Amino acid sequence: MILHRLAADLHRHRLAQRAPGGPLRDYLQTSPPDPGTAVARLRLLALDLETTGLDPRRDAILAAGFVPVDGLVVRLSGADEVVCRAEVPVGQSAAVHGLTDDMVVAGVEPDELVARVASALAGRVLLAHHAPLETGFLSAASQRAFGVPFPATVVDTMELHRRVLGAAEGAIPPGALRLPAARAHLRLPAHRQHRALGDALATAELYLAQVARLSGGRAMTLRALQR
Question: What is 178-212 written as a DSSP string?
Fold first, then answer.
C-alpha cells in the first residue's frame, strides 16, 4: 500500500512538471488525503458531469456541478456549477439537461472547466456515482487542453451501494445501482436528475447515508471506503 501511494505521488509529480502553470499544476502538486484518514476528517468533492454522450474520446462535457464534503458535513457555501461551451443539436441540452442553447453557447471553454474543477478538488477525494465516467471525461478534457491526464483519488457511491445491498453482482436487480434507486433504498427523497449541481448534491447526501449504514457507528477510513 505504501509503495502504491509513493508511485501515485511520483506520477502526479511528473505530470505537474509537464502541466502549464495554474490550477491544474497546483492540483497535481497537492497530495490527496492519506488512505488512513478517518472519514470524520476526510475532505471530498462530490462531482457530477453532464455530457453529450458516454464516450470521452468523442463526446463533450456540458456542465460540471460540485459541492465540498468536509467530514460528515456538506458545505453548500462551496457548491458551484460550470457550464461548458459545446456543439450540440438545437434544443437537445435543454430537453435532457435543462441547459438552454444560449447557456451552452455562453459557457466556458473546456480548459477553464478543467481548471475550475482542479482548483476545487485540490487536496480532496473525488466523490462520484459511477466515478469512471467523471474521471474518464476529466482526463480526456485535460489531455486535450493541457497535454496531461487528470489523475484523481476516488470514492464511488455506486460501489458503496453495491456493498450496502450486500449481494453478488448477478443478484442485484437491473437499475438498483442507479443514483435514484440507491437514494430510494436508503429512504432519501427524490431529486431532479440530469442537472450537474443537483446530481452532485444528491451524490453527497447518498454518501453520508451510505457511511452511516456501512460503518454501523464505528470509525471508518478512506481505505475502508475504497476496498
Answer: SHHHHHHHTTPPP---S-HHHHHHHHHHHHHHHHH
Phi, psi of 59 (to 5 degrees): -100, 165
The answer to whether 142 touches 24, Cβ cutoff 8 Å, is yes
Round to whole Å and give the CA distance between 76 and 44.
13
Torsion of CA 61, 65, 67, 72, to 10 degrees: -80
Domain count, the chain: 1
Distance CA 210, CA 98 (A): 28
Boundaries of domain holding 9: 2-226
Q: What is the full DSSP assignment across 11-69?
A: HHHHHHHHSPTTHHHHHHHSPPPPTT-BGGG-EEEEEEEEESSS-TTT--EEEEEEEEE
CATH assignment of the domain containing 166: 3.30.420.10
**Across the strands, what pairs with 154?**
126
Give the C-alpha separation, 204 to 183, whole Å. 11
Q: In whole angstroms, what is the distance from residue 11 CA to residue 71 CA?
A: 27
Q: What is the pLDDT of residue 90?
A: 47
Q: Tell me the C-alpha distance between 90 and 87, whole Å.
A: 9
End-to-end alpha carbon distance in the chain: 12
Q: What is the pLDDT of residues 139-188, one digit of tens each?
A: 999 999 999 999 999 999 999 999 999 866 668 888 999 999 999 999 99
